[in-house]
Amino acid sequence: MIHRLTISAFLSFPLVLVIALNTSKAADDNHPNSDRPNIVFIFADDQGYADLGCYGAQGFKTPNLDRLAAEGTRFTDFYVAQPVCSASRAALLTGCYSNRVGILGALGPKSLIGISDKELTLAELLHDAGYATAIYGKWHLGHHPQFLPTRHGFDEYFGLPYSNDMWPRHPERPGGYPPLPLIQDTKTIATNPDQTQLTTWYTEHAVDFIERKHDQPFFLYVPHNMPHVPLFVSDKYDGRSKRGLYGDVTEEIDWSVGQILEALRRTNVEDNTLVIYTSDNGPWLSYGDHAGSTGPLREGKGTTFEGGVREPMICRWPRHIPPGNVCHEPAMTIDILPTIARLLGVELPDDRTIDGRDIWPLVAAQPDAKSPHEALFFYWGKHLQAVRSGPWNLHLPHKYRTLHGRPGGRGGTPVRYEQDRIERSLFNLVEDIGETHNVAAAHPDVVKRMMQFVEQARSDLGDSAVKRVGNNVRPAGRID
Known about the structure:
The protein is of the alpha+beta class. It is built from 10 helices and 22 strands. The strands form 6 sheets. Strands 1, 2, 3, 10, 11, 12 and 13 form a 7-stranded mixed sheet that branches. Strand 7 and strand 8 form a beta hairpin. The radius of gyration is 21 Å and the shape is globular. The relative contact order is 0.21. The N terminus is likely disordered.
């Protein structure tokens, strides 16, 4: 069933989410809420499941992220709601499936919609609780003034309003986009900025924010533009890895994480800091050597196969999360908001559906902790394409883009995808992580149960494949 949270439900917390307590008082492990943790959330863009050392990366190193995994919890089955930029970010910040809040696809410079001012974002929840809030990086929930971060709970903003390839130098649409704006709060301060400096700029702003705000509760959100194409890296990491430009870019993101962690240590909040890291979706495989790796997973960005929606996620919080823990239970970015609410003891509004659940027991490696979800749903746009429950993943009939084993492009120029189709198929992800063996015929009882979840989702959220409109969806914001 689709879970709904009432006013007694609580927030979640995946992605380089860093929570730092402002007091030396240690919180109870079951209710670590009374000390008002600071939150730092680091979000990569288009990073593959196997793009961190602790997930099997080859050709480059991620020592800071690997250390976080060794000192905390690493999730093996962590998901995003949709394998595309804006939809994924909407789910993260609202705790809702993106279909529920009307944000689909990747909003571009001509888009007239954005995050509704009627939605409660994670930043608004924390701002209302007295937190200083900032975002340094990619927003992608609407670029018009009423949709910008400072209208949705953030005190400070510096970054790009949408993807860094939406500019006049796009390899497939040269001149097809207007100049790319770099925004400070609500003002455009430059166009077509030097993208080699983006990771450095975001990191410098993040460190400065920690140094300015460490003596009060704060929420710091760092959604990097990288490693989304076009790839850019500063001189300090250019040529450093054995994996070419993609490896260099990933190592610079890891450097950024290290700089943020050092700022937390320097300001004496490291011991009471929760750090979480993940990405918005899988790698853009058509870009070949400028794309990441899904490892054993099938397909990538833009598909609802595991390679498109399963992401690395690690989190560390000394004294609250045991070191070296690995969690195999399914969870999703929608769980971040409810989990954080739980940590803070903040009640969520009871006038709307929130899809996420509190996953603190999983993060804290509590004995016998299980996923709070009976099922997780995966849409592409308004098309319901897959549902996961326990070890089972049921794909409904749908078309998808694929390379059919062909190599991707080189040097930043992609190759074209082909179209393929999958019929209704059941996979056991514990035994078949690559989704290669359809076992539907052998488990008709499982298929029947999974189809009950499908029908519930279609009634609640809709499904364009069967011309169903959800009974409980809310509109996106729209400019006047």
